[in-house]
Design goal:
The chain is α/β, with parallel strands linked by helices and about 230 residues long. About 25% of the residues lie in helices and about 15% in strands. The strands form four sheets. The protein has a four-stranded mixed β-sheet with strand order 3-8-5-9. It is globular and about 50 Å long. The two termini are about 30 Å apart. The relative contact order is 0.16. GO terms for molecular function: glycoprotein-N-acetylgalactosamine 3-beta-galactosyltransferase activity; nucleotide binding. This is N-acetylgalactosaminide beta-1,3-galactosyltransferase. It is found in: Membrane. Keywords: Glycosyltransferase, Membrane, Nucleotide-binding, Signal-anchor, Transferase, Transmembrane, Transmembrane helix. Pathway: Protein modification; protein glycosylation.
Length: about 230
């Protein structure tokens, strides 16, 4: 479903998985097959990519929907030759009190060409598949990017609304979820205030996570890619 919707609009796309699929052409078969081994899979995928193939490299989950046009418009604001890391900015606190900024993995994040090159050239153990500080792939990437001197940037729109989003529109529109226990993690981890409600949904949104119903993915693709208002 990803392959025939938003990924088809990309310059190139590759799927990281543990087995071939008859309908997927661009596949990297990974030895890292469990959720706990996701860090290894992502590093393997990035290191298998050619840094000369594009200016920007996006990592997204299989239940993430990306609006390609908005992604490209946002990236036009930045220089791919600088070490940049872009997504939904969160902050993780280690047990010893140390903190690290990272981009939410579910919402998807982007590495500039220079950031990818640094990752590929690095021999630092913090950026290797053999070592992971946490069980969370996205937190580990934040640690790695900081070690490599890659800086994260504020990706919000001109009104301060987030563009990389951790839930589908149907949930983000609901103001009543703002303080519900299941969603309070956003208030606790987000570097910038995260607000639910239709008025807080950016008209320049780049991604939505947890789009798990295929029909919802096709509906999003239709409304963002094919629907025209006269």
């Amino acid at each position: 479903h990803v392959a025939v919707t938003w990924a088809a609009d990309c310059h190139n796309h590759t799927f990281l998985t543990d087995q071939k699929h008859p309908n997927l052409q661009n596949v990297i078969i990974s030895n890292f097959t469990s959720y706990e081994a996701l860090w290894g899979k992502i590093v393997e995928g990035f290191k298998s990519s050619s840094s000369n193939a594009a200016e920007w490299f996006l990592k997204a989950d299989d239940d993430t929907f990306v609006i390609h046009k908005n992604l490209m418009e946002m990236l036009a604001e930045f220089d791919p030759n600088k070490p940049l890391y872009i997504g939904l900015p969160l902050r993780y606190t280690f047990k010893d009190g140390r903190k690290v900024e990272y981009m939410s993995g579910g919402s998807g994040y982007v590495l500039s060409r220079e950031a990818l090159q640094r990752l590929q050239d690095s021999s630092d153990s913090l950026c290797s598949v053999e070592r992971s500080l946490t069980a969370y792939e996205d937190v580990n990437m934040g640690v790695c990017m900081k070690k490599l001197g890659v800086r994260w940037v504020d990706p919000r729109d001109s009104l301060g609304r987030h563009r990389f989003l951790p839930y589908p529109p149907s949930l983000l529109m609901r103001k009543d979820l703002q303080t519900q226990e299941k969603y309070i993690w956003l208030q606790n981890l987000s570097i910038y205030q995260f607000n639910f409600g239709l008025e807080n949904l950016s008209d320049r949104a780049v991604s939505f996570h947890e789009v798990r119903d295929p029909m919802e993915m096709y509906l999003l693709y239709y409304t963002t890619r094919h629907l025209h208002i006269a």
